[in-house]
Amino acid sequence: MLCLGFVCIFARSVVVLPLYTCTFHIPGSIEHRAQVILYTLLMSDRYSQAVDAGLLFYMKSAHMLSVPGFLHEKRALIMKRNEIARYLTLNRAGATGTMPGWYDVKLTN
Domain map of the chain by residue range? Predict the structure, then answer.
């Protein structure tokens, strides 16, 4: 899998989008959608502008999807990232616990 920066120019305005390419197609893959949303967050931070959506391209079927980054999905992913960071920090300090699972992150299709 590969993510590329993708720049579109529409009517003299520049739109920056992540383009995520996959070699295999899993219909309704939440993991692929989540990865595109994470790339929109990274690109928003890198380019200091709002990146509201990304593109998901399946190479085998030549199918491209637009993946909007809804606020509740971004919030859920950031919260899960913070849980994992806390777990790693506590384990580094010698505490024990169980790794938080990704199964409870809710993404819409």
Answer: 2-92
